[in-house]
Structures are given as C-alpha cells and as structure tokens.
Amino acid sequence: MTSRSMTMIEAINDALDVMLSRDPSVIVLGEDVGYFGGVFRATAGLQRKHGKTRVFDTPISECGIIGVAVGMGAYGLRPVPEIQFADYIYPGLDQLVSEAARLRYRSAGEYTAPMTVRAPFGGGIFGGQTHSQSPEALFTHVAGLKTVVPSTPHDAKGLLIAAIEDNDPVIFFEPKRLYNGPFNGHYDEPAIPWSRHPDSMVPEGHYRIPLGNARVAREGQDVTVLAYGTMVHVALEVAAREGIDAEVIDLRTLVPLDIVAVEKSVQKTGKCLVVHEATRTGGFGAELAALVQERCFWHLEAPVERVTGFDTPYPHSLEWAYFPGPVRLGEAFARLARA
Amino acid sequence: MDGNLPRLALHVPEPRFRPGDAVDFGALLLSRAGEQLRPDETCAASATHGLCHDLIRVLGEDDLAHGPWNPALDPGTLIRMLRLMALTRAFDARMVRAQRQGKTSFYMKSTGEEATAVATALALADDDMVFPTYRQQGLLIARGYPLVEMVDQIFSNRADRLKGRQLPIMYSARAQSVFSISGNLATQIPQAVGWAMASAIRGDSRIATAFVGEGSSAEGDFHSGLTFAAVYHAPVVINLVNNQWAISSFSGFAGAERTTFAARAIGYGIAGLRVDGNDPLAVFAAVRWAADRARANAGPTLIEHFTYRAEGHSTSDDPGQYRSAAERTEWPLGDPVDRLMRHLVTLGVWDAGQQADMDAAVDAEVRDAVRAAEAHGTLGQGLHHPFRTMFEDVFETPPWHLVEQSEQAIRERRIKWPDWSDEGDVGERP
Predict the structure, then answer these.
(1) pTM score
(2) Are the beta carbons of B180 and A109 separated by less than 8 Å?
C-alpha cells in the first residue's frame, strides 16, 4: 500500500472519501459541509464527487442534525454528521444521550443508531470560550456512546473509518490545533507542518485502526503519561526537551478504553501522569486516575498526577495561560521525579 | 422604573374550567361537517392554510358522512375500524386494572383518542414507517402486533422482547414498521424526518409518519424537525394530537391561546390540516391526503388532530385534581367509537346486538392475551430476564468494563437471592 504525507484535515477528508466511495449508505451532513466543504475544509470536494444527496448542508440546528441522523440510521443509512465546533454540540445533546446512545438498548437491538458525529475540539486557535472546549467527559459518562480522539493524520484516517464502520454511535473529536501540524505546546515558536512528522504518512485506500486500542507514542521506563489528542504531542515534547524517560500512551479511544495498555505501562513505570486539555473537575482524567489506583495501586511509587485545563471557561486573550502547556507539565514531571 | 410608562404585566395562561366548574364549550369554533374544501393532494402548501384555522369534519349530527373529505369507505372497512377502536379501548381498560393489581408499574390509556391512531394506521400503507408517542397503542393493534406481546412488554416479563428494559407501553415493533418509543418527548419528530429523508435519498416509495402531543410541540425538536422537513421537502406526515391536556397543563401552555397548532405549518411553508380527531372518517381522509401528498413527492404535512384526553395522563395522575370532570361529558365532538357505531347503525349495516357481541368478543380477546402473558410472569410477581441481559445491547459487543460489571451483578444476585436460578447467567458472557 502506498502512502503519502497528509495533514490531519486531508486525512479526515480522505477517510470520508474512501467511505463514501465504498458504502452507498454513508451520508455526510452538517452546517457548511456541502458546496463550501466545511469551515475547516474537512469535506472539501466531497459533494462534487459524491453528489448532493450524499453530502449536503443542513439548517443551523444541532438537535435537527443529530435527530435526523438517528432516523437515517433507523432506515439503514450510516450518517456522518459534522458539528461545526464541539462547543455547538449541546443543542443536540438530548438526541445523542437519550436517543442515539440508548436506541439499541431500549429496542433490544431492533433499532440502532450507527452514526459518527465529527466535531473539531480543543483550543489553541484563539477561538475563545465558544470555539475551544473539550467536552469529551460529557460523552464518556454516557452508556452507549463511544468517544474517539485521534492525534495524528495516520490515526485520524484509520480511526474515522473504524468509527464509520462501527454499528454504535461514535463521538469523533478532532483536535483542531492538530489539523495543520503536530502542535507541541510551544505556541511562541514557529509552527511545525505535518510534512515533517512520520505519522503524517497516510496509506491510500481503506484501513482501520480498531476502536479500543491505545498506541505507545514513546516507550519509556520512568513514568507513564496517559494522554490523547493535542496533549500527546505536548507531553512528547516536554519529555524530549527535559530528558525524561517517559512512556507516552496515546489512548486514541476513551470509550472503550484500552485498559490493558494502561495497566501494562503503569505496572512497568510505577508512576502515572494523566493529561488533558479539558477542565479538571469531573474530567476524563479523574476516571483514568481512579482506574489506575484501583488496578495498579501496589505498583505505584507516587500519587497519580493530573495536568489539565483550569476549571474556567476557555479565555480568549489568556488562551496560553489556560492551556496545559510545557510549564504545567514540567512541574508535574518534576514532582513525580522527586517522589 | 420610569413612572411615565405603563407597568408591564406577565400573562400566565389559565384554563377556562377547573374542578367543580360548569363547562361551556360554546366558544369553540366548530365548523359543520362536509363544508371544508378539499384541495388536490399536490396543491401548493398555501392552498391548505385556510384549513389550518378550520376543522375538517365528515360525520355530521345526522351520523352520516358529508362533503369532499368523505373517504367513502365500504362497510367492511368501517366495521373493521370500529372493532380495532373497541379492541384498543378494551385493552386499555384491562391494562389499568392490571396496573391496579400490581402486575405492572404504570399504564397510559388512549380513551377518546382511538381514532387518531386507528384511522391513521388504516390510512397508511402497512410498511410506511411510524414514529409514535406513548398513546398510539391503537396503531400497533391495527397493524396486527400480537396483544400477548404487548402485555408481555407491559408486564416486563420473561417473554418481553424488550427484555424488561422499557417502561410499560414504550413498545418497539420493527416487523410492524413502528419505531421504538421514547419517553423523551418530541425527539421522534426529527427522527421521522431523517427516516423520510433517507427514504428519499434511496429512491424508496415508503413514507414516514410521526406523532407528537400538543404539549410537547413546544420542544425544540418539533421545530427542528419541521424546519428539516420543510427544507428537504421530506416525505413525512406529522400528526400533532391536540388532546387539550399535557398532564395538568392545558393547551394554552403550548400556545393554543394565540393560534391553532395546525397553523404552525403556515410559518414553515408546508401543508397543514386541522381535523376533528374524534371523527374517524375525517382522520382517515386527512391522513390519506397527506400520505398521498408525501408519496407524490409533494412534501410534508402537519395535521392537528383536535381531540380530547378523556382520562388522566397516566395511572399516576388524577385529572379530578386539575380539571373539571364535566369537560369529558360536555366535549362537543363526542366520542369516536360511539360516533362510528352510530354511523354504521344509521347506514343500516350494524345494530345494538352486533355491537354487544363485538364488545364481548374484544374483551374476551384481551382477557385471553392477559392470561397468556401472565404465564410469562409479571413485574410484581417475577419471571424477569437474567441479570446478564442488563449488560446486553449497550453496545454491539460489550467492552471489558461491562463484562466486569456483569460479573459483579450476577455475584450480587447470588448473595441476595440464592434461590434464583443461574439459568441464563452462567455459561456464556454477554
């Protein structure tokens, strides 16, 4: 299989193109996704290639977008709705939480809602409080939903194809700061393009990365970092610059979680740092910390550390003060090193 | 506050009659049967908008069918319709009794509204997809869903195909093209529109139908759904059953003091009809018109079924606490079962003896179904599903955390109920 270097946006577009070509039941819908190709260009060219009844614009109504996707799923289609920003997903929350997530259960398998809800998420582009949120914990808390967060173009394509082919509803959060480059947390340094990153090599055609399989982004001996999305790259950069022999686990899917990979790494290193960009209280990191202490307590040599966003809305001008960047991670690594 | 300006005053709607009040429905604008124009099914949506403030009626005071909306059904079809409505009513009566006897937790009757479900079912093709609310049991019965399975679901017993997971009456019947019923209101409206859009995307010929109450037409989902239906010209019929009451809140809390519910169609630019929901012939005619319109690619229709909820919202409320008992007896549009029966008698194809025989027969049919279902268990007396089924169907394949939790639940059962059979819980994982 030949590969070529792509940005994450190109990889997502390629995954959608592959699935629209392979499976006539796949439908892409959302605000501005049709003729224009999406505000981040994720669906560029897809309407022209696959037609207006396969890829089309919708009214500005997330409740309607998710609601019609449930009905399309019941008919037998495999809709891939785009929510323009994760911050806009809340009007569709009832349709996701009360309907899509429970349809298989409440109908004892008679009806299912096989949809993949794509939404750009996370900060780092000066989006202010309404274009920067990371609401993954709202979804990992819901029985019946799967939650996926890719961190590289290679993974984004393979995970998106697996999500679309999955028969359960999947929330697919795309770290928008990673769309055009592997952001390492140093906002004040020149941006790095994906073309210089090995994981930008994306195979042509169809391939899947199974949901529920984490990836070891960096092997190490001293401390395990559990991260996903943008924070994988930030953690890798801090470890590299400060010479920390960290094992960085890119979770890739939060539900179902690859608990075996987590246990294996923490049992080896004896220390665990949980990282996410979302707010701290009740975040997915709390679940990870609880699992690690429940299942790896006798291997731990230090308390599990959490590095997260602050419990405030995402500010505009103080974006980089909010973002859990190299300073916050460096402090946590130092605390763990002293333990 | 600026002393020169009038003080603002908040209007909180209040129904005209409360418990103990005498009732006078003289203010209701009720048109005469047969006088409403019937435009062609493929007309411009605006040609229906006069009907949104009118009331389509077929059965007159003389118990005969009148006017252009008369569907001219043959006596056999009318008798079948009558029987299905009577069967629905008998079913409701027995299920309330079963709830009072502790065989289940909850029930909701559809008394007085049988026509909105049964006549709709008969007006649609059997494979048109229906997204109902919890008060369309008549539609399920009309489509031939086995009564025993309905009772199994209500009793949440071992034979319940929904594995005892759903509140009673939240059926799911894929074989009958009936969608899984949600307790979250109006969510089915955009879903029905999405199903209809999918049918159109695929070049299918089946249409979708949804039901919603007047109360829950205030939900955003209703308006999102109508927007999508209008934008994509979706082949869908939205039935809004205006039974005047949402638990204890009268229709004024959904906007009825300002306009009709059918008139919502005007704002969306789609076809709208307002029909006497207690007139089975008018309901049949309106739904058939809208279904034919959708099937002809002429777009969606919103139908307001103007009816009256003759009983409480559910077994959990006493309507005597919030509305006048005289409303039911004084309701000017009568009772749908009674009206159809009188029509058949007036036509000379039915008599009191046949009616009595039919009432006895449908009651026996329901009684037999209840007995058969009781053998599969009741909510109160047990024969529930194995514990492991609690963890099935959350996902297509249960992840590790559900497997662990399933083992925990079965362990707890063995401690708490040591005599409970392991059958179904051992030997295989969910």
Answers:
(1) 0.97
(2) no
